[in-house]
Structures are given as structure tokens and as C-alpha cells.
């Protein structure tokens, strides 16, 4: 085969084919001229044969290129091309005949050169038709490629190639060796002609069309072949026989047999073609159902496909779909070819049937299969109920109606229950996906809340050279209810506050932010500790939920007088280390939590005390999350442990003391913050020893 | 970690005794709230809480007792707690609830005190 490394292989081979044909014509004309004028042209027949083979190869090259490029798996188009080429060839030939007929009797009609020209035209047409059809048939035969078929085809091609050269062997005579070659090539062609797997894929309409085309191909093949023999019989006019070539005759046989087989098989496939089409539709429907629904799409689309698929699979006359109420309380009904009134009638009839009520109240919905019923309705005599089951519960049902009695066979039930299962899975996936997206959104919101809440705690703590201060807070959930803050009243006076909202999580976090607002406002008023708590209680009492309260401790430190004023509202007592004796003790001040008594009675339940401090003294403020943190034996961290830790580490600076406390807390619970299921905070104040 | 809580009610006319066993935290304080509300709606005049086997109470649990203070004062329903372990009593005391709710050492003391 000529493999030209050019990009225009199609055009090139087309041009070459024409040139070769012209050369062939010229050579034969010269030979004819020599014959008529008794001159020996000196051109051996082998020269013609070589040109003939070259012509075959170039035509093959052209079609192989152009057909492979244009047609892919469109069977009807393939057959149409073959038949159109056949018809064109036949019609052109008929025109030639007509021309001859018109010229009948005239001298021109007997002109050997003209006849020879026509002979060559016929040869070219036949070659083009046969080779192009053979390549088209190749596409059809190799539609479902298996190794065996490909090998067979390759053998056939090689045999055909050898067949072209056969002419050198038998010198263009019809002898036994020719017949032998024909039998071998014909046999190979017939074997290949059994590959007709493309036919079932045609639709009913396409089958009718292909029958017509195939018939035209058969007709033109037969006609062209018969014309061949006409030429063969009047061979003596022509200098050399081009048409009785083993290659061409074998191709005739192959094209004809394959067209005939295809014709017959298509014809006999016609009655069952609807079944194949149905199965194909079911497969496509199944595929559509199993494609998961996109999150922004609606699950009703899947249900839509489900109804259509089931109706077409069961040849149902009407159908409707009922979806049970979902969380948002929507009942969803979709009707097909049925009005609400008829639907009500049928629903009523179904409810009356005992097997249907048993079916509907089945204890194990996951095992539920479709149920066929016979109804006494004037129009619809049989119905089928198909459950839609998600996660072991029925979310809805599809009802198919048919006008004939017992209209649902086993195959329909099987395929429909598969459809329903698939649709349920798609709906379930859709719902799960939506849930996941929702959850993710909540997580995102919580992260924002966490960031906002972090910003409610002070970054910089107010103090002067008289004391150092540091603080730490950790929430059990994303957000928490613990709070601490500082405020500088004047050069020597500072407020330190710690607070804790009862409970934890989001509600505690909201109350914490209210607490911050109230505390920040009250601090500005320069109140004493007791007044601060009374006002805070009054304000918080108005905004806290009924069963929530807040505990808080306030310290108003006066670094000039070396005193601090302290009030405690239900908060865990503050630890104070006395630098002189190295002993730590909890400050004894009574006070009721904020928001518990929401009237003026609160005044009776809060007190303030003033304490002196010495340089080197330490104050440790914390929330109950630390005291109540439990180890694996369910024992609390407790007040005593905090006290002894502070006594042991009293020489350290506040930051180090804080680290020691938190580390031992983590060690105690046996891990990180994850094991402490309450918010906890810690503020350490240390009065400087060398501050005058 | 599953937190164990068992709440039972006994009637000892004219008192109702709520016996709490286990731990009360944010996750189960609703149970306590429901029991107390039930008794209040039944028209109980005196509710005694047996806290001898109450091992731990979180601030959410305290919130339950707290939330009935004003309502019970108005309706003249008595709420008393007795038998608390020192550790649990300390929690009530820190918050200051011991000043608002009668917390008594024993059942006898609770029955006499009225």
C-alpha cells in the first residue's frame, strides 16, 4: 500500500488515481491503434496490468482516507454512501448505454476508440464502486472489533492484494486456477459477511431505510456485474480485458453477499427491533437516574425521569407519584395522563384493597417490592404500586395504571423496582449532600463566631509598674461564656474583672458579650465594687434567660495605697498568696451570682471588702472550669491543688505561674484541652517586689 | 463519657421528695427541670430534694433551681434541699444559693424546718 507522508493524502491519491486511469486509457488506446493499423505498438500487456493494479491501489488509498475520516459508526450513512455510489455508477453507465443507443447505426457507434473509452469508464466506475463499498463494509464488519474478526479481515485484504497480482500468473484466462482463487476469496468474503452486529442498533425507522439502501446496492451490484459479462462476451474489440480480474470479481461476490446478508438479517430483525430499542432506552434511563443530582438542582428532576422511565418500561397508560410529607411539610404529587379526580377514585379503590393496606403498613420497608393489583375501575383495570425507600423508610410511592387487566409482567416489575431503587439512591444522595453543605455552612458560621468572640477578650491588659498581669481563656466548644477584662481608672487605680456565664456554647457566648457590654459601661462610672455588682445584676437581670446566671469577681486595685477593693458575685473565690509567709488562701467574701435575684433584694446579698497587699503578693483569678476539671477517675482538680501549685511556684513571674497551672491541669486530666468539657479562664496578678 | 443521672419522685404527704442520683450537667439538667415543673403543676406545696447521692452539679444544674426561686416564692411552694455532700454544698455556697434556698443537712431537719 502506498504510504505517502503527505498531509493531503486524500487529494494526492485522488489525483494519482486520475493520472493512472488516464495513463491506462492512453496505453490501451495506443495498443488499439496499433492493433487496428496492424502495427506492433510494442506495449506488453503486463504494462497495462501494472497500471490497473496501480489504479486499484490509488482508489483504495483515496477511499480508505476519506471514508475513515468522515463516517464513524453512523451505519445508515455508511450504507447510504455505498448505495449512492452504486446508483451513480449504474446511472452513469445507463447514460453511456443510452448514448450508444442514440448513436445506433451511425459510424460513431462502431468507432473502436470511443467504445474503448466507454469500456475504460465502465472499468473505473466499477472499481470505484467496489472498492469504496468494500471499505464501507469494513467499517460495518469491524464495528465490534474482536481479535478474530480483525485477523480475518486482514487475511481477506492480503488475499485481495495477492488477487490483484494473480493476473500475472494466469495471463487473464478463465482457467481452473482462476476459479480456485475465486473460491478462496469468495469463501473468505462470505465468512466475513457473518459479522452483522451493527444491525440491532438501528432504530425501526432506520431499519426500513437501510433495507431500501441495501436493496439498491444489491440491484446496482447485480446490474454492473451483468454488464461486465456483456463486455466480456464482446472482448475481441478491446485490446485487453480489464474487468475479468480476480480482484474485481471477488469484490463483486463479497459486496453482493454482504449486502444480501445484511438485507435479510435486517428484514428478519424488524419485528423484534422494538424490544431491543426498549432495552436500550431502559439502559439509558437507568444511566440518567444514576447520575447524581447536583446540589443546586431539584430532586424532582430525578422523580420526573423515574416516572417517565417506569411508564415506558411498563407501557403504562397513566401514572402518578406521591411523596410523603418531608420535614418542611410539603406533600408532592405529580400526575401523568391522569386527572386529579380519577386519581382520587383510584386511590380510594387501592385503599379498599386488603393486600395494598398490608403492603403499605409493612414493618420492613427496605424489603418492600412493587405490588400489582387488579382493580374494578371503569378505565384502569390494573395498577402497580412501587415504593420509594430511603434509609429504611418509605418516602413515597409511584402508581402505574394500565387499561388492561394484569398488565404487568415479571420483567417489568424487575426493571421498575431497579429504577425505583436507583431513583431513591439518587434522592438520598442529594439529601445527604445538601445536609453536608448545610453543616459546612454552620461550621463556617461558628468559626466566624469564634473569631468575633476572641476579639471580645482584651489583647493588652492595663497595668502599671506596680504589678504584672497575664490571662488565659479556653472554650470547651467553638465559643464560650468566660470573660476577663481590665480597665485603668486613673494613674494608680486599675480594675480587673473575671466573669463566667452558666452553661457553655453559643448561648453562653451571647450572654458573655452582653456581660462585656454592661461591665465596660459600668467600669466608666468609677463605682465601688459593691455598687458595680448591684448595677450589673440589675442590668443583666433584664437580658439573661431565666435559668442562666453569671458569676463574676471584681478587683479595684489602688497601687498608691497598696490596697484592693473586692466584691464577689457567686464566682469561685480568688486565691491570694501572701509573700511574707509564702502561704496562699482564698479570699472570703460573700456574694450571690448575677441574674439570680432580679429585684432590689440583691443588695442584701453582696458585700465588698478592702484588702491590703504587699509587694510580691499574688492574686489568682479563675473560673470553675479549672476547679471542676476531672481526671480519669472522675476526681476534680479542686481548690487545694491550685493553692499548693501557687505556693510552690510563687517565685515565678505571672506568665510562668500561669503556664505551670495550665500544664498541671492538662497533665491532671490526662491530655489537652479536649478533655475539659467546660470553658476555663485564668488571670494571674503579681505585685512587684521592687516597686517602691 | 456518658453522664449518669437518675431522678425519682416519692410522695410523703404533704411533701414530694425528688431523689437525685448521679451528676447533673448542661446535657441532662432538662430532666431535673421537667420533674420540678411536673410537681409544681400538680400543685405540690412542698418539694424536697434529696441530694445525698448527687455527686456533681454544674452551673446549668444550679440554673434549674435558681429559675424557680421567684415563681415558688409567689406561689408559696417550699423548695428544700437536704443531704448534700460537702463538695456539692460548696458549689451552692459559692454561688450564694444557700442564702436563697433552704439547704439542710438531713431529711429530718428538712421535714421539721417549715
Short structural summary:
The complex is a heterodimer of chains A (692) and B (114). Chain A is α+β, with helices and mostly antiparallel strands and 692 residues long. Chain A is 54% helix and 14% strand.
Q: How would you describe the overall organization of this protein?
A:
The complex is a heterodimer of chains A (692) and B (114). With 692 residues, chain A is α+β, with helices and mostly antiparallel strands. Chain A has helices spanning 9-36, 45-70, 75-102, 112-141, 147-170, 176-192, 204-233, 246-269, 273-290, 299-314, 340-352, 354-360, 410-454, 505-524, 529-543, 624-627, 638-648, 654-669; strands spanning 318-323, 332-336, 371-374, 382-390, 393-402, 467-474, 482-488, 493-501, 550-558, 563-569, 575-578, 583-586, 608-612, 618-622, 680-687. The model of chain A has no long low-confidence stretch (mean pLDDT 86). Chain B is of the alpha/beta class. Chain B contains 5 helices and 5 strands, in the order ββαβααβαβα. Chain B is globular and about 30 Å long. The mean pLDDT of chain B is 88. The chains are: A alpha+beta (692), B alpha/beta (114). The A-B interface holds A 500, 502-505, 546-549, 551, 569-573, 590-593, 596-598, 605, 624, 628, 636, 677-678 and B 25-26, 33, 56, 58-60, 62-64, 66-67, 69-70, 87, 94-97, 99-100.
Amino acid at each position: 500500500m502506498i504510504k505517502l507522508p503527505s498531509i493531503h493524502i486524500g487529494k494526492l491519491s485522488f489525483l494519482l488515481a486520475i493520472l493512472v486511469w488516464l495513463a491506462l486509457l492512453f496505453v490501451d488506446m495506443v495498443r488499439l491503434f496499433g492493433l487496428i493499423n496492424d502495427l506492433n505498438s510494442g506495449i506488453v500487456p503486463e504494462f497495462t496490468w501494472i497500471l490497473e493494479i496501480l489504479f486499484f491501489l490509488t482508489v483504495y488509498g483515496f477511499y480508505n482516507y476519506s471514508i475513515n475520516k468522515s463516517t464513524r459508526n453512523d451505519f445508515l450513512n455508511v450504507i447510504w454512501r455505498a448505495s449512492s455510489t452504486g446508483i451513480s455508477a449504474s446511472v452513469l453507465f445507463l447514460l453511456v448505454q443510452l448514448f450508444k443507443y442514440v448513436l445506433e447505426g451511425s459510424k460513431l457507434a462502431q468507432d473502436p476508440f470511443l467504445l474503448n473509452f466507454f469500456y475504460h469508464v465502465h472499468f473505473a466506475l466499477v472499481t470505484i464502486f467496489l472498492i469504496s463499498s468494500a471499505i464501507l463494509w469494513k467499517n460495518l464488519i469491524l464495528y465490534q472489533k474482536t481479535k478474530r474478526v480483525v485477523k480475518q479481515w486482514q487475511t481477506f485484504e492480503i488475499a485481495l492484494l495477492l488477487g490483484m497480482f494473480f493476473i500475472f500468473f494466469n495471463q487473464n484466462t478463465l482457467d481452473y486456477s482462476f476459479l480456485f482463487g475465486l473460491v478462496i476469496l469468495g469463501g473468505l468474503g462470505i465468512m466475513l459477511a457473518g459479522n452483522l452486529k451493527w444491525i440491532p442498533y438501528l432504530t425501526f425507522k432506520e431499519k426500513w431505510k437501510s433495507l431500501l439502501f441495501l436493496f439498491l446496492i444489491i440491484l446496482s451490484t447485480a446490474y454492473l456485474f451483468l454488464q461486465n459479462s456483456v463486455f466480456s462476451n464482446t472482448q475481441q474489440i478491446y485490446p485487453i480485458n480489464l474487468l475479468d480480474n480476480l480482484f474485481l470479481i471477488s469484490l463483486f461476490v463479497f459486496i453482493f453477499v454482504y449486502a444480501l446478508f445484511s438485507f435479510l438479517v435486517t428484514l428478519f430483525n424488524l419485528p423484534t427491533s422494538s424490544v431491543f430499542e426498549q432495552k436500550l432506552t431502559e439502559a439509558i434511563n437507568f444511566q440518567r437516574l444514576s447520575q447524581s443530582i447536583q446540589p443546586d438542582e431539584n430532586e424532582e428532576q430525578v422523580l420526573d425521569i423515574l416516572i417517565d422511565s417506569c411508564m415506558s418500561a411498563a407501557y403504562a397508560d397513566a401514572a402518578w407519584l406521591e411523596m410523603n410529607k418531608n420535614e418542611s411539610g410539603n406533600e408532592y404529587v405529580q400526575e401523568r395522563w391522569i386527572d386529579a379526580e380519577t386519581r382520587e377514585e383510584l386511590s380510594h379503590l387501592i385503599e379498599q384493597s386488603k393486600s395494598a393496606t398490608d403492603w403499605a403498613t409493612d414493618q420492613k420497608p427496605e424489603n418492600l417490592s412493587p405490588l400489582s393489583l387488579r382493580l374494578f375501575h371503569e378505565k384502569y383495570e390494573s395498577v402497580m404500586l412501587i415504593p420509594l425507600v430511603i434509609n429504611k423508610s418509605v418516602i413515597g410511592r409511584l402508581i402505574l395504571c394500565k387499561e388492561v387487566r394484569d398488565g404487568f409482567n415479571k420483567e417489568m416489575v424487575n426493571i421498575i423496582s431497579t429504577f425505583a431503587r436507583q431513583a431513591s439512591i439518587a434522592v438520598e444522595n442529594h439529601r445527604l449532600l445538601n445536609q453536608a453543605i448545610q453543616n459546612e455552612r454552620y461550621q463556617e458560621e461558628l468559626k466566624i463566631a469564634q473569631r468575633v468572640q476572641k476579639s471580645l477578650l482584651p489583647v493588652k491588659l492595663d497595668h502599671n509598674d506596680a504589678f504584672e498581669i497575664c490571662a488565659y481563656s479556653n472554650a470547651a466548644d467553638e465559643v464560650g461564656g468566660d470573660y476577663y477584662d481590665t480597665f485603668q481608672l486613673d494613674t494608680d487605680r486599675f480594675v480587673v474583672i473575671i466573669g463566667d456565664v452558666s452553661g457553655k456554647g453559643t448561648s453562653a457566648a451571647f450572654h458573655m458579650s452582653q456581660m462585656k457590654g454592661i461591665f465596660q459601661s459600668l467600669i466608666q462610672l468609677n463605682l465601688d465594687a459593691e455598687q458595680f455588682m448591684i448595677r450589673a445584676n440589675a442590668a443583666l437581670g433584664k437580658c439573661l434567660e431565666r435559668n442562666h446566671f453569671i458569676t463574676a469577681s471584681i478587683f479595684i486595685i489602688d497601687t498608691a495605697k497598696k490596697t484592693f477593693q473586692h466584691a464577689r458575685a457567686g464566682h469561685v473565690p480568688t486565691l491570694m498568696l501572701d509573700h511574707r509567709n509564702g502561704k496562699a488562701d482564698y479570699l472570703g467574701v460573700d456574694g450571690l451570682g448575677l441574674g439570680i435575684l432580679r429585684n432590689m433584694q440583691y443588695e442584701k446579698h453582696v458585700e465588698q471588702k478592702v484588702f491590703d497587699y504587699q509587694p510580691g503578693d499574688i492574686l489568682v483569678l479563675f473560673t470553675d472550669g479549672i476547679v471542676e476539671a476531672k481526671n480519669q477517675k472522675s476526681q476534680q482538680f479542686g481548690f487545694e491543688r491550685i493553692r499548693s501549685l501557687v505556693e510552690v511556684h510563687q517565685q515565678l513571674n505571672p506568665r510562668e505561674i500561669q503556664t505551670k497551672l495550665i500544664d498541671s491541669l492538662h497533665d491532671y486530666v490526662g491530655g489537652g484541652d479536649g478533655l475539659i468539657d467546660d470553658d476555663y479562664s485564668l488571670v494571674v496578678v503579681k505585685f512587684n517586689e521592687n516597686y517602691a | 463519657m456518658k453522664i449518669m443521672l437518675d431522678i425519682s419522685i416519692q410522695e410523703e404527704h404533704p411533701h414530694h421528695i425528688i431523689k437525685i442520683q448521679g451528676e447533673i450537667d448542661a446535657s441532662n439538667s432538662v430532666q431535673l427541670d421537667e420533674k420540678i415543673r411536673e410537681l409544681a403543676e400538680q400543685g405540690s406545696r412542698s418539694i424536697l430534694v434529696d441530694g445525698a447521692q448527687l455527686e456533681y452539679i454544674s452551673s446549668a444544674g444550679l440554673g434549674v433551681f435558681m429559675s424557680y426561686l421567684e415563681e415558688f416564692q409567689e406561689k408559696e411552694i417550699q423548695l428544700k434541699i437536704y443531704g448534700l455532700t460537702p463538695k456539692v454544698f460548696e458549689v451552692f455556697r459559692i454561688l450564694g444559693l444557700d442564702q436563697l434556698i433552704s439547704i439542710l443537712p438531713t431529711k429530718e431537719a428538712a421535714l421539721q424546718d417549715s
